[in-house]
Design brief:
It is built from 16 helices and 20 strands. The N and C termini lie far apart (76 Å). It holds the Pfam family Aldedh. Keywords: Oxidoreductase.
Amino acid sequence: MGHSQAAAANAPGLSRFGEFFHTIDGKPESSGAHFDVINPSTGQPFARCPDASRAQLDSAVAAARRAFVPWRELSFAQRREYLLKLGQALKESIEELAPLLTSEQGKPLARAREELNRAVAQFDLLSRIEIKPEVLRDDAQGRTELHYRPLGVVGAITPWNVPIVLAVPKITQALYVGDTVVVKPSPYTPLTTLKLGELAQRVLPPGVLNVVAGGNDLGQWITEHPGIDKISFTGSVATGKRVLASAAGTLKRVTLELGGNDAAIVLDDVKPAQVAPRLFQAAFVNSGQVCMAIKRLYVHDSIYDAMCDELAALARKARVGDGFDPDVTMGPVQNKMQYERVLGILEDTRQTGARILTGGQARPGDGYFIEPTIVADIAEGTRLVDEEPFGPVLPVIRYTDVDDAIRRANDTRFGLGGSIWTNDLERGEALASRLEAGTTWVNQHVGTEPGVPFGGCKESGLGREYSELGLKGYMEAQVVKVARAG
């Protein structure tokens, strides 16, 4: 046993959640190697996760390929029934899994329960969407239809910020349309997803859903694997580019939902006291670790100081701490690497002369806690504004001309989401349509719906998840032409 394995084995409370296994061909499997999973509220290992070998990945892919033909032959309704059973099994396990999710991700326990409940609903809602052949031509010469057929085996690679609510839609969309799946969760938060795989062993045919955990090598093996037909990846822009390059060797279909640096523009006709709570929630949800959270807040000069005051007051009221404390509203940054990156951005911010109104530093003690931070008098050309911090930090940027604010909001390589905040809804809609982003809102920010496509433009991604459009991304278009007799 290596040093880190020994430390994990001796960690207090390690046995609370028992042992963890991959799911391969409907059966649990361990591995010869393991890695520590860190509780971000303590910075210490609390569990050990099996580290899948290349041979185990090959077994999982082979199982998915064997299961594919009988699975695709089922009707949409039959596949939906299986998904509803898996959703019910997850629902019945929420009280068991929520503490595990909080332990590995850090979010407050109530938010962990919310995430699991949202995932349960996705099994149902995403499998209600109809995919039907489209008639392109029907005349005396013949009939031409556009059909959609399952692709094959989908490799789903999921992130650490909301691991279950981002894994379940990939699983549901793929399985519902007739594909089979190999899921790789983030090595920072693999455990709840492994438990979801264990639930699947009880309700799905063997090989239909396989869950394997591991590090960067496993991700590379999946994206290169000739037995995988599509990659659905959610994560950073940098990693997404590597996924796309790796998948190119076999021309896999690829859906990428990548980072964002979402701008929200507040017009001069709103009252800061009324709008600030919604802006704060949209920026600091999950401690700012949401791809579509507000990352840049542009506020008109006439209400700028009042808005800064309101946001700073909300930040001071936020309760940061261990997710098992019922009074806590914000948990830690999920992992040490991200924690150090956010602290580095804050240090660079101090050098710019910007005003840190509140927060701006790590909380003393154990864990990866950073106080919610509001930064004023800052502009483009700084790391905090130009990059995606992905942490509890919000820059508030002054503007005087809304056309200039739109230009500045669009002057980025990101294009995931954006919003306009105003009492003039017609004007707000017109301005929102000018934001270069996959989703734009008026008087709201953050949130997805199963029936509405979601994804980014520019370097924020390729393709869409959710809705009929998203489901078809897990299928291959096929033209069927029938000539009339005679």
